[in-house]
Amino acid sequence: MIVYRTKNDLNGHLLTFKNEGKTIGLVPTMGALHQGHASLVEKAHAENDIVVVTIFVNPTQFNDPSDLDHYPRTLDSDLELLRTLEADLVFVPSVKEMYPDEEPQTFDLGGLDLVMEGRYREGHFNGVAQIVSKLFMLVGPTRAYFGQKDFQQLVIIRRLVEILELDLSIVACPIIREKDGLAMSSRNTRLSKEERKLAPFIFETLLKARELREELSPGELKEWVSLQFELQSGLELEYFEIVEDKGLRPIVKWDEKLNKVACLAVQLGEVRLIDNLKFD
């Protein structure tokens, strides 16, 4: 495993692989790696000749400076995990390396960035698009791997590939969960012991909501979910939406022709957690 910190050094190594006609799998991360990230690297290994993992806490996607400051950074243990996973190349750039003095790019994401997460995190997805587009252009991957936990981000990145007209496959990988159902997230390390005990309620509620879709309309189900969180102290629901999986349009009535995903965000202490569940 080779670790690079500059674009020029990484690009020089990648050029050799590209000239040899090798396929490249890209796994972009913000570090604080866990088994969810490991599953992405393993899938990339299975489907490509070379695996590139990037570790970069991207400042342009944080609308809350405090959230950026508190985001966990565990580079030494991240690199150790990637060695065991046999990643080929790891790119760990500085902020200056990724954002020199040029003007930040703005993307028209077709309104996908204005709903759900976009309502609560202004500019977040344009920041995601900025860094992901830079990594796509730098690495030139055959395939790029993203977890379904960040479902809205996944839909937006697919839109970004269309905007940039890239010959690139976006591979969606299943959510990896703890034994009690909590979706693995780098932010989970910030939960206190008591908060960690409360956290499985999020997935439990999603599962129960999926069962109730046979009895309740989408609107009634939203009200039911809101009530569950009102009754559960310690957890504050920011939103719960049931959307179709391409344009993120809200589901107003059950339609078997549409693929439906239930998405939510919850504030637990100082930690904001997201999750989702397919409703088909």
Descriptive tags:
alpha/beta, Rossmann fold, Pantoate--beta-alanine Ligase, Chain: A,domain 2, 2 domains, three-stranded antiparallel beta sheet
Structure summarized in a few sentences:
This protein is 40% helix and 20% strand. It is α/β, with parallel strands linked by helices and 280 residues long. The strands form two sheets. Strands 1-4-3-2-5-6 form a six-stranded parallel β-sheet, sandwiched between helices. It has a three-stranded antiparallel β-sheet with strand order 7-8-9, covered by helices on one side.
Order of helices and strands: EHEHEHHEHHHEHEHHHEEE
- Please report the total strand number as a whole number: 9
CATH class of the largest domain: Alpha Beta
Enumerate the spans where pLDDT stays under 50 for 5 or more consecutive residues. none
Tally of distinct domains: 2
Please state the structural category.
alpha/beta
Radius of gyration over all CA atoms, rounded: 19 Å
Looking at the structure, what is the overall shape? globular
Mean pLDDT: 95
Judging by the overall fold, what is the CATH architecture of the largest domain? 3-Layer(aba) Sandwich
The order of strands across the largest sheet is: 1-4-3-2-5-6
CATH homologous superfamily heading of the largest domain:
HUPs
Predict the CATH topology of the largest domain: Rossmann fold
Please give the share of residues in helix: 40-55%
The fraction of residues in strands falls at 15-25%
How many strands, which pairing sense, and closed or not: the largest β-sheet? 6 strands, parallel
Give the end-to-end Cα distance, rounded to a whole number of Å: 40 Å
**Given the structure, what is the number of helices?**
11
